[in-house]
Design a protein that fits this description.
The structure is a single chain. This protein is an alpha/beta fold and about 700 residues long. Strands 20-19-18-21-22-23-24-25 form an eight-stranded mixed β-sheet, with helices on both faces. A seven-stranded mixed β-sheet has the order 1-8-15-12-11-9-10. The relative contact order is 0.08.
Length: about 700
């Protein structure tokens, strides 16, 4: 046997908590240093690499905090003592404060309150001082644990999946998940109603001699024991340590030794994966408890939290900058994304996303939709490229514009979109660039050649300076030059296009050079770009079209859907270990959510509002693609502007360069030979075969 060790609890305090504390200090408490009741929340461990925290938020000061409890969490009662001066905080008798908190825990054990309300075993104490002039806060948390007369000994530690048969593990998981869900539902009831908070974080599992595992409250221990049931003590374990349980178990084991007078106990430390009991990580402990004499009283209490340096000392938080409304907004945006990692996807790399520099080519309906979702991911650096002005028809469909933007001929779209983005989120770094993207098949007059060359050079620099390029333009040919430049620079391209009631969202594969790089497995083909399905060079699609035919006509809700899908596809791609070279998702494949927190990455998503359907497709890179093939990219890298100018002026040049012209000729020759061939079956001379043209028509 070895002495059982416990992983200490840690605190996590939201900035809004300190803001609320400052308001209460100024408007309610004033010079009072009386203790104030708090209500924090805790949960099971969030993943193998992240323990759970005792969290304090703005709502922790109110008695109705249970109404805001997140799924999978439970309430933890505590108290706050805020001092008027820094010296008062530093010189207070902290040992006495911790002793008094420990006495409350012991009183709850002796009176049976801890059996009725197990969260009473998890009390916390917070000492603080708020310098409201500098927005500087001192704090020190304690999670009091009573020291028993002798150590707790552990006889065996194993995982649940190795402790019981698979069928029993499934029963146990179902019983525990159901018990916690019922408790959660009770916690969500209004204050004053029958509360299930008392049933967490501890409960019992009992198995009759003949029967299934069932969950029960701590108060049922005597009854299930008399019935001859096999009894386990269960805990929603905040620890992520593979060998040691969380801190709250200390007081629970002491209560079991005192109230139940047991010397051995089986303990299940419940740990979750994606909101359900994880049998592989949940610990089963066989524990030996010391005997508690009738007149014994705890003489020692421990539980002060260590600071960031690992020392038992207070923490200081300087929120002077953060208390500025702009900084508070920035913190709130970051918190929104962080909560996804804390509560749903522990391996999510949010820093990588928030540091991205995004280039949006097109500031229309799609560009506005994409920009708003990018802000939701906490991405700050978003630049727009567009060459048009805000029209009166735009504000109702394009979310970054208002009526005033249409007046006096209309503001440049790119600049207006960037301005609005900074108004929505002051922390955004956004530029609007008025630029016309050169397009194949669009004639360029002699006086405009210099400007076209300058626009091309600027577009080259913009793509080099950004991490991700979104192609959100109206015409097909406007996407050719950015696709080529991004393929040469190895940048991730997300392409979105709209029909009347359909959309296509796709990511371009890596650059041609990636075919032989170590980041792309040899057996994995490179994914195609927007032009890889074409067998002709891009041409002027606006020729002989009226004004209304040149405008994108789509159902109003389509752009928001496609824009959101485009951003999520980008996030999913960048969370994959191979990034831009991630393989296309395969239907039905098993997903390792630790490795792929956002799931597998599709290549193309086609959606249809008519019928509300969506499908994921994949396509390999075309060896003779006019935009991303090795031939075109190499020619651009070697010749630069002269090559681009010839391609822009003579789209047929791209077909000659890539071999499409020869492919057309060979295809035409084969077509002629097929039509001239005798209609006889090769194996049956003289017999007519069915008319193939009629067969295809019938299909």
């Amino acid at each position: 046997m070895t002495t059982l060790q416990f992983q200490p609890l840690k605190s996590a305090v939201d900035i809004a908590f300190w803001s609320e504390l400052g308001d209460l200090k100024l408007n309610a408490w004033k010079l009072s240093e009386e203790k104030v009741n708090l209500q924090g929340t805790c949960s099971t461990t969030l993943g193998a690499g992240m323990p759970a925290f005792v969290q304090l938020e703005r709502s922790s000061f109110t008695q109705s905090a249970t109404a805001a409890i997140q799924k999978g969490h439970y309430t933890v009662p505590g108290s706050l003592q805020n001092f008027n001066t820094e010296n008062g905080f530093k010189n207070c008798d902290k040992a006495l404060a911790l002793k008094h908190a420990g006495q409350r825990v012991w009183h709850n054990i002796l009176t049976g309150a801890a059996e009725e309300h197990p969260s009473c075993l998890c009390l916390f104490l917070l000492l603080s001082y708020a310098d409201l002039k500098k927005f500087s806060y001192w704090s020190w948390f304690a999670f009091p644990a009573l020291k028993p007369p002798g150590p707790f000994q552990v006889n065996k530690t194993t995982s649940l999946q190795h402790e019981v048969q698979p069928e029993s593990a499934v029963q146990i998981a179902a019983a525990c998940d159901q018990w916690r869900q019922v408790a959660q539902d009770h916690e969500d009831q209004p204050s004053g109603s029958s509360s299930g908070a008392s049933q967490l974080p501890f409960w019992l599992l009992a198995k009759p001699v003949e029967g299934d595992w069932q969950a029960a409250p701590l108060t049922a221990f005597a009854d299930v024991t008399k019935q001859g049931c096999l009894v386990w003590l269960c805990m929603s374990d905040p620890s992520n340590n593979p060998d040691h349980p969380g801190w709250p178990l200390r007081n629970m084991l002491l209560m079991a030794a005192k109230r139940w007078e047991v010397t051995t106990l089986s303990v299940l430390c419940v740990r979750d994966h994606r909101g359900r009991l994880d049998a592989a990580r949940s610990l089963c402990l066989s524990v030996t408890l010391p005997t508690i004499p009738p007149d014994w009283e705890p003489s020692s209490v421990v539980g002060w939290e260590a600071n960031s340096a690992g020392k038992l000392a207070p923490r200081q938080v300087d929120l002077g900058a953060s208390m500025d409304p702009r900084r508070l907004a920035e913190s709130a945006v970051t918190l929104n994304v962080s909560l996804m990692r804390w509560r749903a996807a522990p391996s999510l790399g949010i820093d990588r996303l928030q540091d991205l520099k995004i280039l949006l080519l097109g500031a229309g309906t799609l560009g506005c939709a994409v920009a708003r979702v990018l802000l939701g991911w906490g991405i700050r650096h978003i630049d727009f490229v567009d060459n048009s002005q805000v029209a009166f028809s735009n504000p109702v469909r394009q979310s970054l514009y208002e009526f005033e933007d249409c007046l006096h001929g209309g503001k440049p779209k790119a600049e207006a979109a960037a301005d609005k983005l900074r108004q929505i989120y002051p922390g955004a770094v956004s530029l609007g660039i008025s630029l016309t993207i050169p397009m194949p098949g669009h004639p360029v007059a002699a006086p405009q050649v210099q400007q076209v060359q300058a626009d091309t050079a600027r577009l080259e620099r913009l793509i080099e300076e950004h991490d991700v390029v979104f192609e959100l333009m109206d015409t097909r040919e406007s996407r050719w030059l950015p696709t080529l430049l991004a393929a040469s620079a190895g940048k991730l391209v997300i392409n979105a296009a709209l029909g009347f009631d359909s959309f296509l969202v796709m990511r371009h594969g890596g650059p041609p050079a990636a075919d032989s790089s170590s980041s792309l497995p040899a057996a994995q083909p490179r994914l195609g770009c927007y032009f890889c399905n074409d067998v002709v060079a891009p041409l002027n699609s606006t020729v002989d079209r009226t004004v209304e035919q040149q405008c994108t006509v789509a159902r109003p809700g389509l752009a928001s859907i496609a824009g959101a899908v485009a951003v999520e596809l980008m996030a999913c791609t960048l969370q994959h270990p191979l990034g831009i070279n991630a393989p296309a998702a395969v239907a039905g494949e098993r997903v390792n959510h630790e490795e792929l927190p956002l799931g597998p990455v599709p290549h193309m998503i086609r959606g249809q509002l008519s019928g509300f359907t969506q499908m994921c497709l994949a396509g390999q890179a075309f060896r003779q693609c006019t935009a991303c093939s090795q031939t075109v990219v190499d020619q651009y890298r070697q010749s630069g502007w002269p090559f681009l100018w010839q391609a822009l002026q003579e789209p047929k040049f791209l077909e000659d360069l890539t071999g499409l012209t020869q492919l057309h000729a060979e295809t035409h020759a084969r077509s002629i030979s097929i039509h001239e061939a005798p209609l006889s079956h090769p194996d049956v001379e003289g017999e007519d075969i069915p008319d193939m043209e009629d067969d295809w028509t019938s299909l």
